């Protein structure tokens, strides 16, 4: 899975390390910018720790989750393979033997110019995205090996933790739990504390299932109301709309799902300035989306979150760029919530419960 850069103006790190017997290169921001950002992060962490400490003295439920770092590594290397394949095809670079091996991606490019072009395109794609930095190793005889740098892997893990925290906060809010401390705990854990709540099982039940994200074709063979009151066609089901109160007859199987999304975030429509949620697919999702839209021009398809249709646009033309927008008379908060859920649906793996306990209130002095 890929994720959007955080605070990219102050965190801009462009790094493509090209390693071989004779060359290693990396580009980073001036120290002043990085130091300023580091100081801000430290101050934010101190404030969060202070608030969490005060809340725990009130007593309540403490829950610790571990993010799926193994799933993240698998997702990163799979996305890398798909992105490399897309780059090779678009650049018409001849290659052979593209495969995942030993935590990285290997392939053979016989032509030296083709190898250099691949490196240049990957460097351009990584610009401004610390989590996309790669090592590209020339193994001789045209063999090229690509892998995420240690810094990029750490950045991906931080992004996964931040997205998981955003998802946890939204899911707690949806469950009516508005007062909670949700903070990173080490590199791959998240600590939740809810003051006054003595039933931690109520919280863990909220995260017992993963957010379901799907892109499904809409069945036009009969009205949704007729299918709802009778028998829907085989392989379809009726789902409610997110806001509009309508019902939709949609395919049960998703053409694409949350694992195909590399980025999602709130924004504004260019013409109307209405709040929207925008998204991008990874290389595999881009190819699937291009094929689906080419085969179904003129048909509507549904974007489904947790069995609710949040948007049902009509496919006007093949969409080959791998990105799209979701609109639906959203408020900015709703657009942000939809984008967060799209990201949550693309989170690799799941949250593993590490600790669950009741903390008694501190004794008064």
Draw up the topology in text.
Blueprint: E1 16-19, H1 31-56, E2 60-66, H2 69-90, E3 96-101, E4 104-108, H3 112-126, E5 134-140, E6 143-148, H4 150-174, E7 181-184, E8 189-195, H5 200-204, E9 213-217, H6 224-229, E10 236-240, E11 247-251, E12 256-257, E13 261-268, E14 275-281, H7 283-295, E15 301-305, E16 308-311, E17 323-326, H8 332-345, E18 352-359
Parallel strand pairs: 1-5
Antiparallel strand pairs: 2-8, 2-18, 3-4, 4-6, 5-6, 7-8, 9-12, 9-15, 10-11, 13-14, 14-17, 15-16
Helix pairs in contact: 2-4, 4-8
Characterise this structure:
The protein is an alpha+beta fold and 365 residues long. The protein has helices at residues 31-56, 69-90, 112-126, 150-174, 200-204, 224-229, 283-295, 332-345, and strands spanning 16-19, 60-66, 96-101, 104-108, 134-140, 143-148, 181-184, 189-195, 213-217, 236-240, 247-251, 256-257, 261-268, 275-281, 301-305, 308-311, 323-326, 352-359. It has a 5-stranded mixed sheet with strand order 1-5-6-4-3. It has a 4-stranded antiparallel sheet with strand order 7-8-2-18, sandwiched between helices. It has a 4-stranded antiparallel sheet with strand order 12-9-15-16. α2 (69-90) packs across α4 (150-174) and α4 (150-174) crosses α8 (332-345). Mean pLDDT is 79; it is low at 1-35.
């Amino acid at each position: 899975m890929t994720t959007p850069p955080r605070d990219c103006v102050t965190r801009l790190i462009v790094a493509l390390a090209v390693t071989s017997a004779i060359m290693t290169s990396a580009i980073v921001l001036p120290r002043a910018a990085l130091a300023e950002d580091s100081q801000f992060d430290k101050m934010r962490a101190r404030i969060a720790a202070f608030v969490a400490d005060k809340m725990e003295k009130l007593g309540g439920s403490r829950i610790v989750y571990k993010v799926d770092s193994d799933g993240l590594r698998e997702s990163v290397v799979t996305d890398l393979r798909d992105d490399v394949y897309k780059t090779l095809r678009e650049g018409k670079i001849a290659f052979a033997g593209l495969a995942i091996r030993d935590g990285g991606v290997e392939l053979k490019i016989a032509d030296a110019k083709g190898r250099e072009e691949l490196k240049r395109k990957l460097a351009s794609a990584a610009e401004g995205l610390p989590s996309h930095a790669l090592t590209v190793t020339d193994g001789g005889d045209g063999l090229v090996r690509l892998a995420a740098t240690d810094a990029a892997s750490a950045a991906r893990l931080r992004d996964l933790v931040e997205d998981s925290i955003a998802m946890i906060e939204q899911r707690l809010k949806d469950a009516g739990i508005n007062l909670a401390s949700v903070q990173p705990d080490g590199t791959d854990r998240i600590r939740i504390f809810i003051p006054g709540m003595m039933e931690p099982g109520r919280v863990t039940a909220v995260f017992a299932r993963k957010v379901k994200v799907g892109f499904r074709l809409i069945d036009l063979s009969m009205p949704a109301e007729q299918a709802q009151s009778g028998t829907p066609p085989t392989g379809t089901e009726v789902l409610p709309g997110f806001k509009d109160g309508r019902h939709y007859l949609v395919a049960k199987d998703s053409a694409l799902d949350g694992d195909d999304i590399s980025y999602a975030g709130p924004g504004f429509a260019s013409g109307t300035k209405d709040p929207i949620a925008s998204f991008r697919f990874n290389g595999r999702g881009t190819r699937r989306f291009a094929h689906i839209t080419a085969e179904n021009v003129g048909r509507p398809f549904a974007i489904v979150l947790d069995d609710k249709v949040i948007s049902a646009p009509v496919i006007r033309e093949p969409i080959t760029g791998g990105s799209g927008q979701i609109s639906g008379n959203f408020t900015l908060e709703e657009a942000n919530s939809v984008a967060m859920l799209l990201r949550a649906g693309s989170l690799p793996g799941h949250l593993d419960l590490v600790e669950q306990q009741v903390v008694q209130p501190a004794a008064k002095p």
